[in-house]
């Protein structure tokens, strides 16, 4: 990520931008001392993020790419303006490419205020924003990493490395032998077709004095071929991002600890590869999950809910949290319902749902609450087993109803990010590829309990 400095004076030799009227993100040649004039639209939070992102992109694509850029904030910028502009700049210039010749990138952005007294306040704001942006960036990096490198062991090692750099977070990695001993049938079934066995990533943040405990569970399918219910070839390459929920959980847990939030957090990422071999699980199989509940498999491409079910029961019984949130690229139906920029929120508790929506608004991530339609609850009941994995009907709803069977009455929210977890085009602070969606929301959610 770029470095952001706050100052009350310009530095010679560094190009300067000004913020002005015009469509948010519109960049024009500036007048006089200004190389660029960047439109800030109507001045909404998204407009400022869009402006920050557009400035960095313009500087990186300029005929003479700049290593550093300065921007005049105007006579009376408020804290939110500074925060959103910085967030856009930090995320909008993101690039991920496996190459020996990285593209030119802006290294430093200087925010210029006319008031020396405002510098310390703005620096504090930028410091917090940087942690949120770092969480989204880490989630993007993990999800964008190609799956010939990223298997469950790689993801577990990456999680260990990330939290190893943060005080107060402990990582425990459970291997396939432990999973078999404990009865994690969903994870073992999904991972059975791969030469890379599954791993359960467990992260623990235990700040002193914390009275509330939040359990975060993120889907960690490092590649999803669909298994025997195999996906079409077109689009399968994008399934390297099918662990975007797990990436968001890992990144958010690290940021929560770095910010020193006073809430206990346990994070679980059930990681597996869903591939095709003689060891693959089959439609018609009956799988026994951690805790004993059984699932009748209908479609091996509905693997995310299988691994989440194990992790949810384990997390709730082992740690007894006050609230549970799972995050997953779970259903294509949610993309149809809400498009590619809004996440689906299902919840059994109104207070938890309200906290997620407020956290998303604070983070600049859009969520829409979806109904847990009781008319479809019977469809989840199994004939060969306790529950049916993929009964048909409204896919996002029935997937959520399936997961509800495993939460034992604890306040629970299910975040389906199948749409916004990856992007095909550039917009606001988002670039094509993995978006890091949900990481910032989870941090702000944790802050609401601190």
Automatic annotation (TrEMBL):
<comment type="similarity">
    <text>Belongs to the peptidase M17 family.</text>
</comment>
<dbReference type="GO" id="GO:0005737">
    <property type="term" value="C:cytoplasm"/>
</dbReference>
<keyword id="KW-0378">Hydrolase</keyword>
<dbReference type="GO" id="GO:0070006">
    <property type="term" value="F:metalloaminopeptidase activity"/>
</dbReference>
<dbReference type="InterPro" id="IPR011356">
    <property type="entry name" value="Leucine_aapep/pepB"/>
</dbReference>
<dbReference type="InterPro" id="IPR000819">
    <property type="entry name" value="Peptidase_M17_C"/>
</dbReference>
<dbReference type="Pfam" id="PF00883">
    <property type="entry name" value="Peptidase_M17"/>
</dbReference>
<dbReference type="GO" id="GO:0030145">
    <property type="term" value="F:manganese ion binding"/>
</dbReference>
<feature type="domain" description="Cytosol aminopeptidase">
    <location>
        <begin position="299"/>
        <end position="306"/>
    </location>
</feature>
<dbReference type="GO" id="GO:0006508">
    <property type="term" value="P:proteolysis"/>
</dbReference>
<keyword id="KW-0645">Protease</keyword>
<keyword id="KW-0031">Aminopeptidase</keyword>
<protein>
    <recommendedName>
        <fullName>Probable cytosol aminopeptidase</fullName>
    </recommendedName>
</protein>
<dbReference type="InterPro" id="IPR043472">
    <property type="entry name" value="Macro_dom-like"/>
</dbReference>
<comment type="function">
    <text>Presumably involved in the processing and regular turnover of intracellular proteins. Catalyzes the removal of unsubstituted N-terminal amino acids from various peptides.</text>
</comment>
């Amino acid at each position: 990520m770029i470095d952001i400095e706050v100052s009350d004076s310009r530095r010679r030799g560094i190009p300067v931008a000004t913020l002005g009227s015009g469509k948010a993100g519109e960049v024009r040649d500036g007048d006089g001392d200004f190389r660029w004039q960047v439109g800030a639209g109507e001045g909404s939070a998204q407009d400022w993020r869009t402006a920050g992102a557009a400035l960095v992109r313009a500087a990186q694509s300029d005929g003479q790419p700049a290593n550093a850029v300065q921007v005049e904030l105007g006579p009376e910028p408020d804290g939110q303006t500074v925060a959103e502009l910085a967030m856009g700049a930090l995320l909008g210039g993101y690039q991920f490419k496996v190459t020996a010749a990285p593209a030119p990138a802006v290294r430093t952005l200087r925010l210029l205020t006319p008031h020396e007294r405002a510098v310390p306040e703005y620096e504090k704001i930028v410091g917090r924003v940087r942690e949120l942006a770092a969480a989204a960036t880490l989630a993007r990096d993990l999800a964008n990493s190609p799956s010939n490198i990223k298997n469950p062991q790689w993801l577990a090692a990456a999680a260990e490395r990330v939290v190893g750099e943060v005080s107060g977070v402990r990582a425990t990695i459970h291997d396939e032998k432990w999973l078999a001993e404990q009865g994690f049938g969903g994870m073992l079934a999904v991972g059975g077709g791969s030469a890379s066995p599954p791993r359960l990533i467990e992260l623990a943040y235990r700040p002193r004095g914390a009275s509330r405990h939040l359990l975060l569970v993120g889907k960690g399918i490092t590649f999803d071929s669909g298994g025997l219910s195999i996906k079409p070839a077109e689009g399968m390459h994008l399934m390297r991002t099918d662990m975007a929920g797990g990436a968001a959980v890992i990144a958010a847990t690290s940021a929560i600890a770095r910010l020193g939030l006073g809430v206990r957090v346990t994070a679980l990422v059930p990681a597996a590869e869903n591939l095709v071999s003689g060891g693959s699980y089959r439609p018609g199989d009956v799988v026994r999950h951690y805790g004993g509940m059984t699932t009748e498999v209908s479609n091996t491409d509905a693997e995310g809910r299988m691994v989440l079910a194990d992790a949810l029961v384990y997390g709730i019984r082992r740690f007894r949290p006050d609230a549970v949130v799972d995050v997953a690229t779970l259903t294509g139906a949610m993309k149809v319902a809400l498009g590619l920029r809004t996440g689906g929120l299902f919840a059994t508790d109104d207070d938890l749902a309200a906290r997620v929506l407020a956290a998303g608004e604070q983070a600049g991530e859009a969520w829409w609450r979806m109904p847990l339609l009781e008319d479809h609850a019977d469809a989840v009941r199994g004939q060969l087993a306790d529950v049916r994995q993929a009964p048909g009907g409204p896919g996002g709803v029935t997937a959520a109803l399936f997961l509800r069977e495993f939460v034992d009455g604890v306040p629970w929210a299910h975040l389906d990010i199948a749409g916004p977890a990856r992007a095909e085009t550039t917009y606001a602070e988002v670039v094509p590829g993995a978006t890091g969606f949900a990481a910032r929301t989870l941090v702000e959610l944790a802050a609401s309990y601190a």
